[in-house]
Amino acid sequence: MADFDLFVIGAGSGGVRAARVAAAYGARVGIAEEYKVGGTCVIRGCVPKKLLVYGAHFAEDLDDAAMFGWDIPQKRFDWAVLRDNVLAEVGRIEGAYTETLTSHDVTIFHERAVLTGPNSLNLAGGREVSADKILIATGARPQMPQIEGIEHAISSNEVFHLEELPKRIVIVGGGYIACEFAGIFQEFGSQVVLVNRTDVILRQYDQQLVDRLVQISLRKGIDFKFNATLDRIERRDDGRLHVAMTGCDDIEADAVLFATGRRPNIEDLGLEAAGVELGETCQIKVDADNRSSASSIFAVGDVTDRIQLTPVAIREGQAFADTFFGNKPWQVDYQCVPSAVFSHPPLASVGLTEGEARNRLGSVKVYTSDFRAMKNVLAGRNERSLYKLVVDGATEEIVGLHMIGPDAPEILQAAAIAVKAKLKKADFDATVALHPTMAEELVLMR
Ligand code: NDP
């Protein structure tokens, strides 16, 4: 008999969910984690990022407070206080994740595990273990280009640990991480330069909303360098960084953050020995049941590069455990997955963009609401929100919903249920507005 029914490599969102649920079904489960329990989301992703977003937003709230009658004599931001509080909270959640595993009798190995065959692994401490099924949930890591001086740059792994707040920061990329950290640092008072290789950012989002984000960000003072690339980073004697550029003038900065995508963690895992095939982006290829080309080896989460989002990894882990250990087979549905960019202001989206809908459907109707939130009006903050409904002209079903504005992700999560349920524009119209809210715009578009 094998040592374990299931052995999981990687204790991030997907791995922890699969391990805990399989154990609750009665499986004997082991899990190996070489760094910290919690993975990218908890340790160096969603959780600490969102806390920084909250911290950053105080800059606007404190500015706006005066028009609401509050006299705030002095506004001063202390990066070290926020950083240390965030890291302490991350430590608390890491403890809660570990507790979840141990309370379900999952055996945790705080070391690296490497496959030695389709049912066997070698732990860094020297122990050999065998398992009926192995789940690879090793996630992904930031992709750093091989340019001269790259050792002076940081990725989203290091950004949470900065000694000091950079006075001037160059952020490379135009995706989620770049846009979120551009907003965070700008609100903290850093001078932000966002460098992107093309003139398109947030490529998968509705470009009308993205344009709105760029417009607002420019007004706040973020400097965009489009169609520009970094050639070289040099550290000056005074510690500052000189960034040699193509496509724009060279830049002097205190920090350079690369946010140019994430690549699956597949190196030195013994995948070849176990017969696990990789795809074009070096992801582990899996079928709809998360099974790799080796029948006893499965993979979930970012290492499979399907949709790199925490809730998707969690679902994949749950589906895997239910299917193979709970006798309740099901597969993850990748349609209509809501997503958000926690920029300032945030952007949230579900379903097809207007462009995608026009390409895929015969006729498309688009409804928009372009408005200034009541709170922004009184505060004198010249920042307009934009909501957009994309409707299939033939069926009247809502096929896409896109929002930029305060609390857009909080509002969109509820509305995404309606889009997923294929409700029609008439269903939104038949719902009485909840006044006064921003969300009421969703049922008032004519
Ligand atoms: P993204 O995939 O979102 O964006 C990558 C950006 O980098 C794009 O603008 C891309 O440009 C650019 N890029 C890619 N390769 C290069 C290169 N060699 N040189 C210059 N630019 C390049 O990646 P992120 O790193 O921002 O985030 C990684 C993943 O993490 C996301 O895909 C997302 O799934 C997840 N994430 C989710 C968050 C959320 O849900 N709020 C927050 C943070 C991360 P181009 O468009 O031209 O390819």
Brief overview:
The protein is of the alpha/beta class and 446 residues long.
Name the hetero compounds present: NADPH dihydro-nicotinamide-adenine-dinucleotide phosphate
In percent terms, what proportion of residues is strand?
15-25%
Mean pLDDT figure: 98
> Outline, from the CA principal axes?
globular
What can be said about the biggest beta sheet?
A: 7 strands, mixed
CATH architecture of the largest domain: 3-Layer(bba) Sandwich
- Between the first and last Cα atoms, what is the distance in angstroms? 65 Å
The tally of strands reads 21
Global structural class: alpha/beta
So, the CATH homologous superfamily of the largest domain? FAD/NAD(P)-binding domain
Question: Gyration radius, to the nearest Å?
Answer: 24 Å
The total tally of domains equals: 3
Determine the number of helices (DSSP H or I, runs of at least 4 residues).
12
Secondary-structure map with pairings?
Layout: E1 4-9, H1 13-24, E2 29-32, H2 39-44, H3 46-64, H4 79-103, E3 107-109, E4 113-117, E5 120-123, E6 128-136, E7 140-142, E8 168-172, H5 176-188, E9 191-195, H6 207-220, E10 223-225, E11 229-235, E12 241-246, E13 251-253, E14 255-258, E15 262-264, H7 271-274, E16 297-299, H8 310-325, E17 339-341, E18 347-351, H9 354-360, E19 364-372, H10 374-379, E20 384-392, E21 398-404, H11 408-420, H12 425-429
Parallel strand pairs: 1-2, 1-6, 2-3, 6-16, 8-9, 8-14, 9-10
Antiparallel strand pairs: 4-5, 5-6, 7-15, 11-12, 12-13, 17-18, 18-21, 19-20, 20-21
Helix pairs in contact: 1-8, 3-4, 3-5
